[in-house]
Amino acid sequence: MKNIYLRKISREEADNGYIFVLKSMLGFFPGIGKEFQLKDGRCYRAAKVESYPCLCQGPDEPHEHFFISESGLKRGDVVEIRKIENDSKRYILKRLP
């Protein structure tokens, strides 16, 4: 698995202050609800992958959406989350131009 998660922020993500995490990328992070350190700029802060139940595909297909809380996002922003090699609990968040 590569050590980068890249995501273009949607209106929903910007409005609600989070970065969606694709189900296929859950293994990139320590685990749902498990705390890790996320560096945004100069400082590390505690972060975790959270989830909420959803019926966006209809009542016959209940599922969960996964996300990391993050403020200050704008629709169309591209964010990169990079895992620090040899440290399973430290990541760096960059907002790309």
pLDDT < 50 runs, ≥5 residues:
none
Strand content: over 45%
N-to-C span: 25 Å
Largest beta-sheet characterization = 5 strands, mixed
Spatially, the strands of the biggest sheet line up as: 1-7-8-3-4
Number of helices: 1
User: Can you give the mean pLDDT?
Assistant: 93
Following the backbone from N to C, one meets helices and strands in this order, namely: EHEEEEEEE
Anisotropy-based shape: globular
Radius of gyration, Cα only, in angstroms? Answer: 14 Å
Structural class: mainly beta
Kindly state the number of beta strands.
8
Helix coverage percent of residues? under 10%
What report would you give on this structure?
By secondary structure, the protein is mainly beta. The chain has one helix at residues 11-16, and strands spanning 4-8, 18-21, 36-40, 43-47, 50-54, 63-69, 78-83, 90-96. It has a 5-stranded mixed β-sheet, with no helix packed on it. The chain has a 3-stranded antiparallel β-sheet with strand order 2-6-5. It is globular, with a radius of gyration of 14 Å.
